[in-house]
């Protein structure tokens, strides 16, 4: 296995652009890659531009009629069929939509292939993580579901156990749906409670069906949850499940929209806690998945202050060259930020927090809303896997 991580990157992924008024501004990708380069991390990884996913790969998850509808809207956005979720406010049609969506999917699929074949231990695609797309439709700013496609490709290559951990503020509904009845895939999603946030799914009682019963795990966090609660919930659920499941590959999704500055959600997590979960995922991959780790981006709409710093930390951790949170951000990158956005970029790679949490094993408070959320998840899902609540 290669000692160097792979960073999947093609400048063309920045063409994933729903328009000037849309919150998913592709400048977040440009600025992230710029910050990766400013810290020299592009020299600590192998930067790889993979081919776009072809139709046979897309059909591992998506229906052929849906792929055809995306192609048609890509060629003529005015012809978008809203029955497939395209041409809507969330997912406006744009010229070239199929091509760039397939390109992003191709990066995640290639990352999974490289990790499975031992070409690298860790692979990152921060342009990916588009976890809301369904087999027959777009949703939540997502056209093709690259995490599900990466997992489906791993299964096609012979993987028997793949774990997916999603810490985006929104429920990883599309990935859960893709493997709802598949015992080879364990999906774990930590997200803001569906009462207060799109897509209004991800209740603890959603645990899979048929042979896949117990294969879906959901932690629905109260709005306002901050660092201590978020980290407590993660460590109260994820490590124990991975220790039991023993995945051959760990796929993780690191949407940066849990941050307290994100305009579209209501959690209060810092950059420093996001970094702590990234480091935990890296350690869990080494402990339970022989180091095989595919790390993806996701949501994140504080496109200057948060997203580039968060995903640069992800790249550094995957490269075994972590960026010191106290690092001063190079002025060259801050100049790029101002030139592109007319905003002042952040000065350091930290929010100045020192994340800590109370371990679940030390006891819980049944009157605490965060502990109620964790307990609901453990009671719903853990017995189905033969684990104690």
Percentage beta strand: 5-15%
Give me the strand/helix succession: EHEHHHEHEHEEHEHEHHH
> Rg to the nearest angstrom?
19 Å
Report the structural category: alpha/beta
Low-confidence stretches: none
User: How much helix, percentage-wise, in residues?
Assistant: 25-40%
Per DSSP, the total helix count is 11
How many strands?
8
Overall pLDDT level: 98
- How would the global form be characterised? globular
Biggest sheet, spatial arrangement of strands: 2-1-3-8-7-4-5-6
The profile of the biggest β sheet is: 8 strands, parallel
Q: How far apart, in Å, are the first and last alpha carbons?
A: 37 Å
Quick gist of this model?
With 389 residues, this protein is α/β, with parallel strands linked by helices. The protein has helices spanning 27-38, 55-58, 64-75, 97-116, 146-156, 173-178, 227-245, 271-288, 307-318, 331-341, 369-381, and strands at residues 6-8, 46-48, 122-125, 162-166, 185-192, 216-221, 249-253, 293-296.
């Amino acid at each position: 296995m290669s000692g160097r991580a792979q960073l999947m990157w093609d400048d063309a992924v920045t063409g994933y652009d729903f328009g000037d008024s849309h919150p998913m501004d592709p400048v977040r990708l440009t600025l992230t890659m710029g910050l990766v380069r400013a810290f020299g991390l592009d020299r600590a990884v192998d930067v790889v531009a993979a081919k776009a996913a072809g139709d046979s790969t897309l059909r591992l998850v998506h229906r052929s009629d849906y792929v055809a509808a995306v192609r048609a809207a890509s060629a003529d956005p005015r012809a978008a069929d809203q029955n497939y979720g395209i041409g809507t406010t969330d997912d406006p049609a744009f010229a070239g939509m199929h091509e760039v969506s397939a390109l992003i999917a191709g990066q995640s699929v290639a990352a999974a292939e490289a990790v499975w074949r031992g070409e690298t231990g860790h692979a990152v695609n921060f342009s990916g993580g588009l976890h809301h797309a369904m087999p027959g439709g777009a949703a939540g700013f997502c056209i093709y579901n690259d995490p599900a496609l990466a997992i489906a490709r791993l299964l096609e290559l012979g993987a028997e156990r793949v774990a997916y951990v999603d810490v985006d503020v929104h429920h990883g509904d599309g990935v859960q749906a893709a493997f709802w009845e598949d015992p080879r895939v364990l999906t774990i999603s930590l997200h803001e409670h569906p009462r207060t946030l799109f897509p209004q799914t991800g209740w603890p009682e959603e645990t899979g069906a048929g042979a896949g019963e117990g294969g879906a795990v959901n932690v629905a966090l109260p709005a306002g949850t901050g660092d201590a609660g978020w980290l407590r919930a993660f460590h109260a659920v994820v490590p124990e499940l991975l220790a039991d499941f023993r995945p051959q590959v760990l796929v993780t999704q690191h949407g940066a929209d849990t941050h307290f500055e994100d305009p579209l959600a209501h959690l209060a997590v810092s950059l420093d806690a996001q970094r702590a979960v990234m480091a935990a995922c890296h350690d869990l991959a080494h402990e339970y998945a022989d180091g095989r780790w595919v790390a993806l981006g996701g949501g994140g709409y504080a496109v200057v202050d948060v997203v580039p710093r968060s995903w640069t930390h992800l790249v550094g951790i995957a490269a075994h060259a972590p960026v010191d949170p106290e690092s001063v951000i190079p002025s060259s990158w801050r100049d790029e930020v101002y030139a592109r956005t007319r905003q002042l970029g952040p000065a350091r790679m930290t929010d100045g927090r020192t994340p800590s949490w109370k371990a679940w094993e030390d006891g819980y408070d049944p009157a605490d809303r965060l502990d109620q959320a964790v307990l609901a998840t453990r009671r719903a899902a853990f017995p189905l896997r033969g684990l104690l609540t």
